[in-house]
Amino acid sequence: MDFQLSADHVLLRDTVRQFAEKEAAPTAAERDEQMEWPGALVQRMGEMGLLGVAVSEEYGGAGLDYMSYAIIIEELSRVDASLGVIASVNNSLVCYGIEKFGTEEQKRELLVPLASGRALGAFSLSEPGAGSDAASQKATAVRDGDAYVINAIKNWITNGDHADTIILMAMTDASQGHRGISAFLVDTHAPGVSIMKVENKLGIRSAHSCQMAYDNYRIPVRRRLGEEGQGFKIAMTILNAGRVGIAAQALGIAQGAYEAALNYAKVREQFGQRIADFQAVGFTLADMATRIKAARMLVYETAWRKDQGLDFIKDAAMAKVFASETAMWTTTKAVQIFGSNGYSKEYPVERFFRDAKITEIYEGTSEIQRLVISRELTKE
Ligand SMILES: Cc1cc2nc3c(=O)[nH]c(=O)nc-3n(C[C@H](O)[C@H](O)[C@H](O)COP(=O)(O)OP(=O)(O)OC[C@H]3O[C@@H](n4cnc5c(N)ncnc54)[C@H](O)[C@@H]3O)c2cc1C
């Protein structure tokens, strides 16, 4: 068993770290405050191959492994979790889904621009009444000749207002329950597709999440992803892989907050000494470092399992639940170590604290992760 990152992985980590620190960090607080979409940075991520990391080179991707993908999302999120989720959605919720389930024509037409950064993708499963219970879709897709007519209200579509292609789930046969759901590759520039609102969020504010409407949107049959009725299975397969990305995002947020707290504790003095030398503060830093190390082991091992072709559903859920709770705990403690400065937007930890919370909610809440883990355990 080798616990060392390869030389290639170290080089990749250092390259992405340098990009995040030099190009993203200076604007992260302002973009967060203003809910400003990081258009130029998204373009740079595309040029660097960070938007199609694990997609094969044949389809415009970087052709790297999932370990590389985890490292990239961790490093982006260590500085700016908004960039982490923008990249994560495009990589694992969209590119992965099209590469795994798409036709050759769909890969050539849609995957190549998405993986090479010339287009952006989003994933649309959630609805006002369908969150954890994702199968209770109200969106409908009715076959009409060589097209389907889609009517839907969809919620919380990350990247939605900047996306060119959206993987959308809709009911093609409501009588079949979750087996009546199909997946589609929406062209967001077509008539009948509109943005209703961009959410004003607690965290990851520079990444946009939208509510969208589909009003008699006609989509050609050739843009159906997979077979009719396969949509729920496709969505769950995509989300299982996506959890590695969100776990890596949580890990990066925790690491960023820990480093900020460590540096602050070494320079802030009270009662004539560095606060790092108070045992209460030192022990908190020790617990942060320990939990982050454990989270990294889980995240990397899950990515490694996926690279080996091993089953990773339970492992991805474990990594996500542990890393996200580590992020929430670590960022809360980081604010505490900063004292009043932790409550100020002058310092980055209040942003990390707000950003951490979402990792316990999206791509399956912590409760749903525990449901997945316990089901897998009891089925074994
Ligand atoms: C910022 C953000 C970005 C998002 N991006 C996307 C996106 O790009 N695409 C997309 O499709 N969706 C997206 N989502 C939606 C997200 O995946 C859902 O919000 C999430 O799955 C939870 O659904 P819900 O909010 O409806 O909560 P609910 O399902 O209503 O859950 C409410 C509470 O009940 C608990 N609960 C529900 N069912 C159970 C159960 N069986 N056992 C125990 N507890 C349970 C939950 O854990 C939670 O604590 C995003 C959400 C946010 C906030």
* Domain unit count: 3
CATH topology term of the largest domain: Butyryl-CoA Dehydrogenase, subunit A, domain 3
Indicate the radius of gyration in whole angstroms. 21 Å
Q: Name the CATH architecture of the largest domain.
A: Up-down Bundle
CATH homologous superfamily caption of the largest domain: Butyryl-CoA Dehydrogenase, subunit A, domain 3
Shape type: globular
Catalogue the unreliable spans.
Answer: none
Q: How much strand? A: 15-25%
Small molecules in complex: flavin-adenine dinucleotide
Helix and strand succession?
HHHHHEEEEEEEEHEEHHHH
Task: Compute the separation of the termini in Å.
Answer: 25 Å
Give the class from helix and strand content and strand pairing. alpha+beta
Q: Quick one: biggest sheet?
A: 4 strands, mixed
Description:
This protein folds into three domains: 7-120, Acyl-CoA dehydrogenase/oxidase, N-terminal domain (Butyryl-Coa Dehydrogenase, subunit A, domain 1); 122-230, Butyryl-CoA Dehydrogenase, subunit A, domain 2 (Beta Barrel); 233-379, Butyryl-CoA Dehydrogenase, subunit A, domain 3 (Up-down Bundle). Helices cover 53% and strands 16% of the residues. The chain has ten helices and ten strands. The protein has helices at 7-34, 39-47, 66-79, 81-101, 104-116, 231-267, 279-307, 313-338, 349-358, 366-379; strands at residues 121-124, 140-144, 147-158, 165-171, 181-187, 193-198, 209-220, 224-225, 269-270, 273-274. It has a four-stranded mixed β-sheet. It has a four-stranded antiparallel β-sheet with strand order 2-3-7-6, with helices on one face. It has a two-stranded antiparallel sheet with strand order 9-10. β9 and β10 form a beta hairpin. The two termini are 25 Å apart. It binds flavin-adenine dinucleotide (FAD). Flavin-adenine dinucleotide is lined by residues 89, 123-126, 131-132, 156-158, 201, 209, 358, 361-365, 367-368, 371.
